[in-house]
Structures are given as structure tokens and as C-alpha cells.
Amino acid sequence: MAPPATQRRRRSHKKAPVAAEVPPEAPVADIRALPDEVLSAIISLLPTDAGVRTRAVASGWTALWRAAPLNLDDRELRLRPSWRNGDRVAARITSILSAHPGPARRLSLMNLTRVSNTTGDDRYATFDAWFRSPVLNRVKEVHFQYLYRYRADELDPLPLPALRFTDLTIASYGRCHFPDNLAGVRFPNLTQLTLHDLTNAERTVHDMISACPQIRSLLLRNNKGFRRVRISSPTLISLGLSVGEHDDEPAMEQLTIVDAPSMERLLIFDTEGGPINIRVIGAPNLRVLGSLPSSLLRLQLGNTVLQEMIAINAITSMHSVKILALGADGFKLNIIVDILRCFPCLEKLYFTNNGALLPIQCLETHLKEIVLRNFTGTREDVRFAKFFILNSRVLELMEFRAPVRQSIKKWEANERRKLPKKSDRASQAARFRFVYHTCLFRNYEDTNRTHALTESDPFKGML
């Protein structure tokens, strides 16, 4: 039966749904419309291979590539099998330096051996010619090392022209042997320097510091000949040190900070190879210190001398230190009590377990955060933690970094029951945090934090 006319009319007056309006597509920007100086700046920031390939975009882009400050990095030249012999990489570098008029912004040669593993050709003359290229006259950043060679009895010499760049602001040199005489070498604008895996004596680092009147950060990593290092610099802010063990003997015997009025951070990473003696007698603004191992034979902080972390004379305070990292074979209170008394304004303590007390001022008024690495819940571990929980009146966070493999939830609940209840804590604001890892936390390994001057706590985030 047909529906009534009125009903048909009512339905016929219903409006059809309005289709959603599709906004017009935004016009796609044509990168070629950008000013040439902007395109050149972009090309300069591209990886080396990508920067070179921009010449294929259009005929005019060859001129843009030539006008852009050169960024040349041998690890960014994706030529197989470059990682095996480097012959094609070396040829490409020569070609790029011949085609580009300069200036260069950055040069990084980290992936080439001196001698070709394929042809046996000696590349030293090639390296020397690259560093003499006028394209590099005003280069701002240089990184150089020979690729590691097995069974190499001696390190190859650093090409002399690698030290000629007076506009440098950042430099790293490694796996080579420096010239014995650095007279005449000057880096008036250099602020960041890394020396690693060198076989020279400590005179090299002393001469390099003297050659850098504006240096702000210095990283010394695995240099086997730096036995007794003496740091004197009016501008140095951050010193990083990592010394691996060499022939079962300490590679570094002593580190002395004698005149560093601007130094704020002394960062010690791997300590297997020393130093076994540290003297900090001229760093009045030191704010971050560590990680200090309990294996130190002698530690001098100002006028205070500690023998195996035990004070042997009257303790004087270093009020500037706010962050301290320590390591010891076990959570042993007697090892750290004296050293804590040296830092009455300490705010954050990192402690790594590598295997009636006097009042301590930093516990009363300043210490807010403690990180305990390799906490396993032994009686000694818990006693160590309880001491700080019951005595640190402004403590806000205690972090337990535990190498735990078993059921984490059950283990953590059991450990929390061992710790003082909130009502018994010296600070009612204190919180506990548990962080887990499947292996032991060892040395702090991110040595590049030495140059991260904007980070107030260089140990934060490092497992």
C-alpha cells in the first residue's frame, strides 16, 4: 500500500546531508625558490655524500654546492667496501677537495688506515696533501684518527699540517703519535679538544693546553704515555679523563689541577688505568667531581689529604662542589664519611658499588638526591642506604640502580620493607625509585659529556 501524499511530501522536504568540505591542498613549497645563501647553508649541514649528490639536482646546484662551506666526513661516504680497505674513499676525498674551492666548515677522517690493506700503498703523503689543501685553510672543526690496525707495534705519526689550522674551534686527534716538538703550534680560537689513544708523553697535553688560550673543555681518553698530568688553564671549564689499564699497570700515576680558576667539572670515567693520585689544589669553582674510585692511593682536595679515602690531616671544606660521584668495593660507610665532610654543600651523590659517625654538614642542609648503583639488597647495602635516609634532612630522592634478574616486583617489594618507613625518615619528602639492568653498572662510559657544557649534571641519565 502506497504511503499518504502528505507523508511523501514531508520526506521529500528533508535536506540531504551536506558533504564535508575538503580544504584545498596546501601548495608544495619548491626548495629551489629559496635564496641561494639559504640553500648553501642547508647543503653545508647535509652528510657528505648527500651534499655531493645535490649537484645532480640541476645544473645550478653544482655552483650551490661549491658555494656551501664544505662538510667532509669519510664515514659518510657510502662506498663499499670502504670499511675494508678505504681505497675508493681516499680517491673520493681527493676528488672532493679538488672540486670544491672552499672554505671548509668541518673535516673528519676517522675511517682510514695509513697503509692500504689491498695494495699495500702508504697513504701518509695523501693525508699530508689533504691537510695542506687551501680548501681547509679556514676550517672550523677537525677530527682525525687512524683506523685501528691489529698487530700494530707503534702508532703512525700525525701528519704535521693537521696542526696548522688557526681558525679551529673544535678538534680531536687520536690513534697517532704527535710530533715531539709543538713549538709554533697555536689554536687561538679552539674551545673543545679531545686527545685519545696517543702514545706521547704528558708534555704533549701540556703543550696543547698552552696552545689553546680559549679552551673550555678537554677530554683525555686512553693515552698510554700521560703519566703525570698537570693542568693549568685560566679558561678550562670541563676536564674529562678516561684511563684504561695498560699491561696490568696504571697508565697514569698522577693528575694535578694546579691553576684552573674557571674549572667547574672534573669528570673521571674509566679508572682501571689510574690516576692513582689526584691533587686538586687550584680549582676554587669546582662544582662536579667524580667518579672517584676507592682504589685511589692519595687524594688531595685543597689542604685536605686523604689516604685511601681516609683523612690523614684536618679536613677543610670545598663549598663549591654540588655533585659528587664515588665508587667502592661495597657499600661501606667508613670509606666515604671523611670525603663527604669535605663537601658541606653537596646536593647530589652518585655511589657505585664495585664489589657512630660525626655530623656531616651536607646531610643537614644540602644533599637532595642520592643514586646507589649496583644495589643488591645485602645487609651492608641496606645499612648504607639507611644511614642516608635517617640522616639526610633535605633528601628528596634516593634511586636504587639494581642489577636484578629475578622477579622484579617481588624483589622490590621485599627491599622496600627493609627501608625506614616515612615517619622514621629524616626527610618526610624523601622518595625511593628503583631502576633495573641485567648486568652490573660499571664505569661511566659516555666521555662525550665532557664537552656538553650546557648540562648541569653530566652523570644524569648515564647508567
UniProtKB/TrEMBL annotation:
Region named Disordered: 1-23
Residues in F-box/LRR-repeat protein 15/At3g58940/PEG3-like LRR domain copies: 128-350
Which intervals hold domain FBD? Answer: 359-398
What the entry lists under InterPro entries is as follows: F-box-like_dom_sf, F-box_dom-containing, FBD, LRR_dom_sf, LRR_FXL15/At3g58940/PEG3-like
Biased-composition ranges, Basic residues, are: 7-16
According to UniProt, the name of this protein is Uncharacterized protein
Q: Which organism is it from?
A: Setaria viridis (Green bristlegrass)
